[in-house]
Amino acid sequence: MSEAQKKSMGNMAVSAVILSKPGIIMSVAFTGLAGMVVANRVFPSLQTVFLCVVSLLLSAGGAAILNNLLDKKIDKQMTRLNKRVEALRVLGDKNAWVISILMMAVALFISLSYFNYVNAALILLAILSYTLIYTLFLKRTSPFGTVLGGVPGALPVLIGYTAIKPALQLDAMTVFIFMMLWQPPHFWVLAQKYRKDYEKAGINVLPVALGTKYTNMLILIYSLSLIPLTFILWLTGTNTVYFAAFAAVAGIYFNYLVVRSVFANRGYGKAFSASIIYMLLIMLGIVVDILVKSLSPVERVIGNLM
To answer: How far apart are the first and last CA of the chain?
Structure first.
C-alpha cells in the first residue's frame, strides 16, 4: 500500500469517527453502564460491561452515521456542521452506508448472542426511533419533535439494564424518564444558540416556530422538573440519602446556570455544556452511590483506613 493510499485510508477512518459523533456515543455508553449498575446493584462482570458497552457504541455510532446520510442536505446549510459535511464527503456515501449498517448489525448480533431478545429489541427500537421516526419525521415536521425524539437518547439506560435482567422495574423507568426530561432543555438551549442556522436550513425547531420567550419558559420547566425526579431513586431505595443530597446540589446549581442564561438571553453555549456535565454527574452519582452501598461494613472500614 502506497503512502497516498495509507493517508487516504487514515482520512476515511477519521471521517468515520467524526460522523459517529464520538461525544454523544460515549455519553450513551456511560448511561448504559448506569443502567447495568442499577439492575445489578453491584458492578457487573467485566465481560458483561464490555459486551454491552461495545454494542451500545456500535449501535449508536452506526445510527449517527446513518443520521448524517439522511440529513446531508440540511447539514450543508448549517455552519456549525461543516466538519461533518466535510467528513461525509471524504468518506463517501457508499462507504458510510456500509459502515453504518455493519456497525448496527454487529451490535444486534452481540445483543442476541450474549444477552436477550428484550435487549436486542430495545437496541433496534433506539436505532429506528432515532433514524426514521426522529430524523425523517419529527425533526422535519414538529417544533416539539425533540420531546418524543428523546426516546432513543434515553433507551441506552434500559439497554444497559436489560443486559442484566430483561424485566424492567421502577428504578429503570425512573432513570429512563430522567433522561427523557433532560434531553429537551439540553437540545433547546443549543437551538437557541444556533437559531439562525436552523432557520436557514428550514428546520422548525422550537425557537424558530414559537420564539425565544416560549422556549426559555419550557427550558426552565423541564430543567426544574429534574430535581424532584432524582429523589425517587432515594425514596424507592435504589440510592441513598447521600445521592439525593448530591443530586439536589447538582440540580440546583445546574438550574442556576440555566436561569442565568435564560434571563440574560445569552450564554446558551455554557448552559448546553452545563447540561451535559449535570447529566453525567447524576449518572456517576447513581453508580458510585450504589457501589458504595453494596460494600459490606467490613469493606467500608477497610476502605476508610486505606
So the answer is: 54
Whether this prediction's pTM lies above 0.90 is answered by yes
> Domain boundaries in the chain?
13-299
Cα distances from 158 to residues 24, 60, 147, 184, 270, in angstroms, run 17, 14, 18, 19, 29
- Tell me how far CA of residue 6 lies from CA of 1, 10, 80, 121, 252, in angstroms: 7, 6, 29, 38, 51
| Total Cβ atoms within 10 A of residue 288 | 15
256-284 CB burial, b ≥16 within 10 A, e <16: ebbbebbeeeebbeebbebbeebbebbbe
Domain over 13-299 is classified CATH 1.10.600: yes
Q: Mind listing the pLDDT tens digit for each residue in 189-224? A: 999 998 888 888 888 899 999 999 999 999 999 999
Closest by alpha carbon to 278, among 248, 299, 302, 298? Answer: 248
* Selection from 232, 247, 125, 116 nearest residue 170 by Cα: 232
The alpha carbons of the chain give a radius of gyration, in whole angstroms, of 20
**Helix pair angle (117-128, 93-114), 10° resolution:** 160
Helix (H/G/I), strand (E/B), else coil: 47: helix
Per residue in 122-171, pLDDT (tens digit) is 999 999 999 999 999 998 888 898 998 899 999 999 999 999 999 999 99
CA distance 87 to 197: 19
